[in-house]
Specification:
It is a single chain. By secondary structure, the chain is α+β, with helices and mostly antiparallel strands. The protein has five domains: about 100 residues, Nuclear Transport Factor 2, Chain: A; about 90 residues, Roll (Nuclear Transport Factor 2, Chain: A), CATH 3.10.450.40; about 160 residues, Elastase, domain 1 (Roll), CATH 3.10.170.10; about 300 residues, Neuraminidase, CATH 2.120.10; about 80 residues, Immunoglobulin-like (Sandwich). The chain has a six-stranded antiparallel beta sheet with strand order 1-2-6-5-4-3, covered by helices on one side. Strands 14, 15, 16, 18, 19 and 20 form a six-stranded mixed beta sheet that branches. Helix 11 packs antiparallel against helix 12. It is globular, with a radius of gyration of 32 Å.
Length: about 1050
């Protein structure tokens, strides 16, 4: 059973000092500015032809992102369905209880022990569970109710229901806490508590009658008294309390919690259920509700809306605390509602500006004249209600998370923003400029953007190509279902001079009055109109018209079977949501949507055959093909061939004095005596090693084949560096400087140029948020096109308590097909980390292009807990490699990806590099931890062989390819018929996949011939590979 990491959320501020930075070694920034232009780097004498770059078949950006929920799943033996956002403890889970007998009942003790172990509470001795009741139903399913205890005292608000099925399936749901109660011996007696209750009722004019006078007719008096723990919202602490359930008179029924140490009534509420909301009749004699209020206010459409507000002291705030997801006990009002719906003011500033600070929207008398605020607040409530009532989804994140809307948002130039966007955390509304009026007026726009949050926390469709178009389409579909009076999007806010049809988009007619891609309101409605260019991330806002139209046609087909359009919508929206949640992955394509919809139509409406038939007809009409044999979908990416060379580990010692080389047999050899401040970075073949010295100068170790030793040189003598990494092929270097800045500097050794890339946190549109302060750890992907990095972030809060954390991103720094620097586009591994949680030190596996390892850190003010995690980005899987650690791992995969090396401790508690075996998935360990090198840290595993760092795909622009003669003696002629003028790379590979030679060739349209000389190669089998922007094609060569 895995141990799960637990934490409390603490909010604390020490001015500019933040405890989050202590999660990694302190970074020292110098006060003086670094040079504006960095020096050109010179490796010395080297053959540039050996450094010709190789293409990848997926030359587009390597987007990567995972739902936040995936980060928590690694903690549990069973699969968690839902997790409490505050505690990290599962609120729903399922699995197979192999230890449960198929015939016997699960006894009470077994139920309690199983639940405590699963929730990861076994190491806290004073916490436990008591069974309240247990029974079997007519299906032979055993249902057990449990309450959590501390020192044997029940914790109110912490209960679970467990369901044990005859086939050994287990399902559980509820809430538990990792609390540390201060007291367990009461200062007051039970009789004292009863007297305090009596005085409380007298003070609040609640009449009590003698229970004996009514006991023969109605139950009255005290029904239950018990000692318990209860969370005190005012002190934000757990209190030892007396709980009293009492009927003082037939019209009153109360629960009271009386602090057993102080005698204060910390919570009381009436249990009377009236047909009207006023439980007490005379409000003057009723105990005041705790903050929730209702107001009527006019929105931007001049419609009077009923909105929910919050009263704190004498001030009303635009915070909805009336929903079931709201947790007052976990809230700090008004600044930090837990499970609330909150609307705040961006004060006409840009989120990308350092001056962006939020302020409350408030009122002294619960009247609201700000129509924009009213509209935004109303939109959030409607979106919440839609997903809850239609799809049983508890808030945007599915776990009762707070919904935040920000109005009066400016663009990057400080002008009124002509847009609205979701940034992974909140809804941002601009007030319009030329194309739009204030966007908060449109319910469908608000619903669309908040739906991006739902998509992000379910399938997490990447924002590129067809996957991105599906992302946009689902947001349109749910937006149209939230505002379901028509099929148009944004019709309430568009300016007709920009959108002649009167709508931003139209699901019922994606062409929307336009005729071509040159009109921004036009979308394709069939695959044969699909946009195939690179603008708009491959047409995410353009091609979404195709699945949009499929949804509309699905509804219309359903109507043909004597249904109203509303009834048809109810079926279609459930099928599409079920598909998004259960059948799509981050890289799903249009065909995957069809596969999922057809499967869900069967799952949900298997007894209504026309639902599946209607779905098939709809997809046929928009040209999205089916898969008759049940196949299809997106294929997983292939692994690279294993580096065939001898394996080594480069590292430093515990004090970071020197660089050492270990061959896994002999004692490590010191190859540099220089003290270092960055983990050594190695090319794929081990020929070059880069690091930053303690002097902040950039050093390089080059392997000399003649002497068999590494030779050290200073690549740049300017003392401005704090970290540096080299690409796998040795053509690119990335550096971080001693200046605090959100920039990665990248150097191209082939063009002798530097390029600066600014780090940011992306949103669902082109807007960015500027909370990235600086990066620390980096790693190039296999192609050299992208860098995965960790970054320190600061989010400013209105209350002055800034929130700080580390996260992981990927930035595109090079474009191989165009042979130039990349776009700088950023993706985040997780768009929504739990509070007081950080991740960092990411590294790619050696051979699997979508597998990474990284450090996971949970922290409070006084301590941190670490784990080493693995993730498969394509599959969306996260698991634990090493848990319950005491330090950061700085991991490195082995050459075969069957082990991982990481910083740890030996048996004496001293610094060491340890290893763990990996299972086939490469993201979970197999076997126990082993000590590899004592007194060492920052290990990087590599091999000194050559291999190909690309994958293969077909090239459509090459009609014919010929090789003659083949077999050949020393040279051959390559004939290529190209449909266009283009550049290609021709690679010669060994039978083991090692790169022997590479040549860049410019083709003209038509027939091309090129003679290639391989006289220096020995006899044997080789592979010729042609690579361009579309992919690659290979052929076998035989040298005689």
């Amino acid at each position: 059973m895995k141990n799960r990491l637990l934490y409390f959320i603490l909010f604390i501020s020490f001015g500019s000092i933040a405890y989050s930075q202590s999660l990694k070694e302190k970074i020292v920034f110098f006060n003086y500015d670094v040079p504006k232009n960095l020096n050109k780097l010179n490796k010395g004498s080297f053959d540039r032809n050996l450094y010709s770059r190789q293409f990848q078949d997926n030359a587009t950006l390597n987007h990567f992102s995972l739902p936040a929920q995936k980060l928590n799943e690694f903690r549990y033996q069973f699969k968690s369905i839902d997790v409490d956002q505050e505690s990290g403890i599962p609120t729903q889970f399922e699995g197979i209880g192999h230890w449960i007998s198929r015939s016997a009942e699960v006894n009470n003790e077994a139920s309690c022990q199983m639940l405590k172990e699963y929730l990861g509470l076994t190491h806290i001795e004073y916490l436990g569970f008591n069974v309240l009741n247990s029974e079997k139903d007519e299906l032979n399913i055993q249902h057990v109710s449990l309450v959590q205890t501390a020192y044997g005292i029940p914790i109110h608000g912490a209960e679970y229901r467990m369901h044990f099925y005859p086939d050994q399936r287990v399902f559980g749901h509820g809430r538990a806490f990792n609390l540390a109660p201060g007291n367990r011996n009461p200062a007051l007696s039970e009789d004292d508590a009863v007297e305090i209750m009596n005085q409380y009722f007298i003070k609040n004019e609640i009449h009590q009658v003698n229970s004996k006078a009514i006991s023969n007719v109605l139950k009255g008096g005290i029904l239950k008294k018990e000692m318990c723990y209860k969370f005190n919202a005012k002190t934000a602490k757990w209190a030892l309390c007396y709980f009293i359930n009492v009927i003082p008179n037939p019209s009153q029924h109360w629960d009271l919690y009386i602090d057993a140490m102080t005698g204060k009534v910390i919570e009381s509420y009436s249990k009377i259920c009236n047909v009207m909301s006023d439980a007490c009749g005379d409000l003057a004699k009723c105990v005041s509700p705790m903050g929730a209020e209702v107001a009527n206010a006019t929105d931007l459409s001049n419609t009077t809306r009923t909105i929910n507000t919050w009263k704190e002291g004498n001030t009303y705030y635009m915070i909805d605390g009336s929903r079931a997801m709201f947790k007052l006990s976990a809230s700090s009002m008004p600044d930090d509602p837990n499970g609330g719906i909150m609307t705040v003011n961006g004060q006409n500033r840009s989120p990308s500006s350092s001056s962006f600070v939020l302020s409350h929207i408030s009122s002294s008398n619960n009247t609201w004249s700000d129509k924009t605020a009213v509209s935004a607040h109303f939109n959030s409530g409607k979106a919440y209600e839609y997903f809850l009532n239609t799809h049983s989804r508890n808030s945007i994140n599915g776990s009762g998370g707070t919904i935040l809307s920000i109005i009066n948002v400016a663009d990057d130039n400080g002008k009124s923003m002509d847009n609205a966007f979701w940034n992974g955390e909140a809804m941002f509304y601009g007030n319009g400029a030329q194309a739009f009026t204030p966007l908060a007026k449109a319910l469908d726009v608000g619903g669309h953007e908040m739906s991006h949050g739902v998509i992000q926390n379910t399938a997490n469709l990447m924002y590129q190509g067809e996957s991105g178009a599906l992302n946009e389409s689902f947001a349109d579909i749910f937006g149209a279902m939230i505002d379901r009076d028509d099929w148009k999007m944004g019709e309430d806010v568009v300016v007709k001079s920009f959108f002649p049809s009167g709508a931003l988009r139209d699901l019922s007619n994606p062409n929307n009055g336009g005729t071509s891609i040159n009109q921004p309101y036009w979308q394709p409605k069939h695959v044969n109109e699909k946009y195939k260019g690179t603008q708009d991330n491959g047409g995410v806002h353009i091609n979404s018209g195709i699945p949009n139209f499929a949804f509309y046609l699905f509804v219309q087909e359903l109507r043909k079977n004597n249904r109203s359009e509303e009834d048809a919508k109810k079926i279609a929206e459930k099928v599409f949501f079920h598909t998004l949640k259960n059948y799509l992955t981050r890289s799903s394509q249009f065909v995957d949507l069809r596969i999922g919809v057809e499967k869900c139509a069967t799952d949900l409406f298997g007894n209504v055959p026309d639902v599946l038939a209607s779905a098939k007809t709809a997809f046929d009409q928009v040209g999205i093909p089916g898969t008759p044999n049940g196949g299809g979908g997106t294929q997983p990416k292939k692994d690279l061939s294993i580096n065939p060379g001898k394996e080594f580990l480069v590292c430093t010692d515990a004090n970071k004095d020197g660089v050492y080389l270990y061959d896994f047999v002999n004692t490590p050899t010191q190859i540099s005596s220089t003290s270092i401040i960055s983990k050594p970075s190695v090319t794929d073949d081990g020929s070059e090693i880069y690091f930053v010295a303690k002097t902040n100068k950039l050093h390089m170790l080059t392997f000399n084949k003649s002497t068999g030793k590494y030779v050290e040189s200073i690549l740049d003598n300017t003392a401005v560096y704090r970290n540096a990494i080299i690409s796998k092929d040795g053509t690119l270097l990335a550096a971080l400087l001693t200046k605090e800045e959100n920039i990665i500097h990248v150097y191209d050794f082939l063009s002798d140029e530097w390029k600066d890339f600014t780090l940011y946190n992306p949103t669902s549109t082109s807007s960015t948020t500027s909370d990235v302060r600086y990066a620390d750890f980096m790693d190039f992907d296999h192609s050299g096109q992208n860098i995965i990095y960790d970054a320190f972030n600061v989010i400013k809060r209105a209350n002055g308590n800034d929130y700080e954390y580390w996260d992981i991103g990927s930035i595109n720094v090079f474009n191989l097909p165009l042979d130039k620097f990349g776009t700088g586009q950023v993706d985040k591994l997780f768009t929504d980390l739990p509070e007081n949680t950080s991740i960092g030190n990411p590294v790619y596996s050696k051979n699997s292009l979508d597998v990474i390892a990284f450090d996971y850190i949970e922290s409070d003010l006084f301590s941190s807990t670490y784990a080493l995690l693995g993730a498969n980005i394509e599959k969306g899987d996260v698991d634990a490699i090493a848990e319950d650690r005491s330090q950061l791992a700085y991991p490195s995969f082995s050459v075969k990806d069957n082990q991982v090396a990481f910083d740890s401790e030996d048996n004496q508690g001293d610094q060491s590099i340890n290893t763990k075996g990996l299972a086939a998935s490469k993201i979970v360990s197999s076997g126990s931890e082993k000590i590899l090198l004592t007194g060492a840290k920052w290990g990087t595993w590599f091999a000194n062989g050559k291999r190909n760092l690309i994958r293969t795909a077909d090239i459509k622009s090459l009609n014919e390819m010929s090789i003659y003669p083949n077999p050949f003696d020393h040279e051959f002629t390559l004939g290529i018929n190209s449909t266009k003028a283009q550049w290609i790379h021709v690679n010669i590979l060994s039978q083991m996949g090692q790169l022997i030679d590479s040549k860049k060739i410019q083709l003209k349209e038509g027939l091309n011939e090129e003679r290639l000389d391989l006289s220096r190669c020995i006899q044997g089998i080789y592979h010729l590979q042609i690579v361009n922007a579309e992919g690659s094609v290979s052929a076998k060569l035989l040298k005689q």
